[in-house]
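Figure S4 source data
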Amino acid sequence: MESFGFGKWNLRVFVSGLVALTASTATFSADDSDAKRADVYGKDSVYSFRFVREAGTEGDRWSLADSKRTEMKTTRAAKEIPAARNRSPASYRPKARKKSSTEPQKTEGVTEPAVATVPSDAVPSGSEEDFGFSGGWGGGRSRLASLGVSAGLVYKADWVRAASGGNERKTMYLQNLDVRLLVDVEKLAGFRGLQIYASGTGDWGADRGQKPSGAVGDAQGTSNIETSTDSFRLYEAWAQQNFSDDKVSFLVGIHDLNSEFYVTDSSTLLLNSSFGVGKEFSQSGSGGPSIFPYPTTAARLKVSPAPDFTLQSGAFNAVATDSSRPDQAHYSFSGSDGVLFVTEADYLTGGDRPAKYGVGYWTYSRTFDSLSENVTDAGGGTQSKQVPSSGVYFLWDRAWSRAFSTFARYGIANSLALSVKNDLSVGTLIRGPISARPSDKLGFGITRASTPGSAENAETTYEGSYRAELGRGFALQPDLQFVHRPNFGSSTADALVSTLRVEISF
């Protein structure tokens, strides 16, 4: 048998062959009963591997006999060689844990059940182009990733125009910057199943009066990067330990609730805040729950007893911002703060038409002032009645093909403690709406938030958005929203809002 030396070129070809074989891009043929050949189609070459059967003490085995590479000409036939095809981009089927990969994804895809959702655009991996605008640092990022250390930076800028209606016609400019670091301690130090994640976020524009909700007069928020003040701050910092082959995970630290709870993959393209967390939930708590812009301390347990079922429960500080400084997150925890408990169960299906069906329940351990009921105290005075604050939500997200998916979300809350009693959102996502641009996305959605009382006490927003992926981590996203009855049927006129978002991943 001809020997096969693992020289520099052969080793590279062999590894490339294994990768290509795994990706199902090879064709096989049998020369005879004791020899087989595999032809692997690369981007510019065909790699041929010949294997022969050898007799061994423990039975026959196949060994690599020889290999060769043939350059392909750019012909129609070469272009039509079948390549590995990805499954549906929105596959909800649980996958093996991704250790230190945060490729430029929030965009679509549900994180595997036992792993916390790290923004997919946080830590790029892959080729120089996959790493984003700054590239792979001459191979430095790949070397760091092999050690379990990944870092990323994402910049967003929104040009928002309140074109008609609302409180005023105005053009605004908002900026958001996220810096993220993920450490896979198993790769770095051999501590099995442990991950550490930290991120910082900066927001600018509010201090210069760049607040779209003020100009539009709506309650739900037409830009999901709008804040009440400018700042750069710690956003998340948590450690997660996985157990039982990643079927169980426990997370503790500063954690964004909406990175794992109340998530529908197909709605993440849209910019209105209610497509992230329903208004009936985002209004709750002291300074809001543990979501953007001020996540707080938390502990979360997630279990996946079966491949198609996930159950997760979290305990979050009920006070998200400091009472003396409402523009700062509240990280300390005391008994008087209370606890926000959230539990969500999800049924996941895979295949060519993956789907997610979920139900969640949330409640606070403390009580809040009633908006409509008073009580008389022992001294004869009148004060607000103390009432619980809780709610339930339902999620439905279904892919009908590899390119088309729809979603529906409905949440209802205790109307005695909260001004918004329910929020209903529906919509659709189209991947690759233009055949020549398969990475682009087109989305449409309607979200309706209602207050107690008449059906007229509702704010409804219609949104259409197109995200154009321009390569090297650069994307443009024009967006148009029409707000009917802003602020729940007040005197504010219906508003038309246009946005151009620029996003750069480094």
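Figure S5 source data
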Amino acid sequence: MRPALIILSAVLVSCGTAPPTAPHPLAPLSAAEIRDAAQLIRARVPETARFNIVALDEPPKEIVLRQIPTPRRAFAILYDPESDRTIEAVANLATRHIDRLQAIPNAQPMLTSEDSARADQIVRADARWQLAMEARGIRDPNNVVIVAWTAGYFDIPGTQQGRVVRAIPYYSAGNTQNYYAHPIEGVVAHVNLTTGSVLEFLDTDRGVPVPREPAELAPLFNAPLRLSPAPLAITQIAGPGFRIENGEVRWQKWRFRYALHPREGLVLYTVGYEDSGRVRPVLYRGSLSEMVVPYGDPSGGWFFRNSFDAGELGLGLNAAPLKPGVDCPQNCAVFDAVMSDPEGRPVPVPRAIALTSAMVASPGSMTTRPGARATWCSVSSPPLATTITASTGSSTRMAASKCASRSPE
């Protein structure tokens, strides 16, 4: 039986157990550390600057592998909408000093819900948008949700400076949660959030009807449901096959650490395999570099929709709670995560990660009987694997970082 390591999905964090006195150099920032870092950085940046990312400033690989003591540092990205400046900062949590503070020219951080809120205000005040809604039979603007998408780079005049997004409306009457099922086609506002102006306004396809039939995802809205399958219970009578020591997962001969990064999501560290009395290094650091979703429609309302879910939205920031028995096996162990909000305050994400032992596909061995043409396959016993599961949220949940609150009417 050969043990296997399987990594599923892309978003994780630290364990829910109490942190040790001296955290491992690669341990994610705790809520207290995020709070301390934000306090140190806030004193050195404009009051209008907003936190986009607060994460561990990882020590150099050589320092970690040689186990050289190193102070804990926090890395932060901030955006100041007043000056249209992106700022990087490194806070030394041991000395309580700022080790680096640097403005990054010609760079924009990830999209946030605050960007959507700002785009919402700008677009709703535009007479062309109001007429576009009326032309589609939408009399009450409160029945519309505006979602800010990244605009892409096409060297369009007016987009070289400032924070630019494309604002897309969806019909949301009746407290609709799944508003993606109710697109208002042909309406896109190209918005410069810095100048507060609409650079371009697209209003086409007025004859395309706006879907208004309910399309919610909850079971209540999808009756009658098919018969439930026979109950399946997954148990481990002797408890989980893995253990966690000071943040390191140990299963069979495998060892690894993990963390939840706001942008990258799941990060695996120092993956190793015990071999002849020593731990053989397999992988120092591994993460999802990007997840690109090109919609591939060249029409005016769609050509720019090429979402970079990690770099533009943040996989870790969109982590959603996992439910044992639904999102992960019933016998899984779940752990909490902690992110930060635009003020730099820690935000807990309960059950952001699940760790479990599970069966994997059975390997087969092929044999041919002497003197026979036919070939048979015999299946060996199914092996176990350690499985890490996490959630970036459904498309509806992810929209929370892109979707604006409705403006008061």
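The domain at 113-211 is CATH 3.10.450.40 (Nuclear Transport Factor 2; Chain: A,). The chain has six helices and 21 strands.
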